[in-house]
Amino acid sequence: MTKLKPILIDIREHEEFIKLPPLPEALTLPMSEYKNWIKTLSKDNEYLIICNTYNRSTQMVLWMQIAGYKATVVKEGMVDVTGEEDCSACQLFKNKGIIL
Questions:
Q1: Is residue 96 part of a domain?
Q2: Is the residue at 85 inside a domain?
Q3: Range of the domain at 97
Q4: Where are the alpha helices (DSSP H) in the chain?
Q5: Nearest CA-CA partner of 12 in 54, 41, 64, 69
Q6: pLDDT tens digits, residue range 24-54?
């Protein structure tokens, strides 16, 4: 069985994208719309959850795990994603199979 590539989900609200746009690889699923999109996700996938820092993503991961999803917090959050080769968040994405 082939392991599925983790899916990056940006849970910031739409108005937050003005200041810092979402990563091209990320699904943009706002936390406020959680009840609308959660049932559309497969429980077979692994999800990496990112927000501006990591406060909301920590809550979202807890909700997803309780619902039976495999979810992990991107602890660095978008404020630390710089695109530099030594960026710890970027390295995490590369290690998980998400190429920036």
A1: yes
A2: yes
A3: 1-13+42-100
A4: 34-37, 55-66, 88-95
A5: 54
A6: 889 999 999 999 999 999 999 999 999 988 8
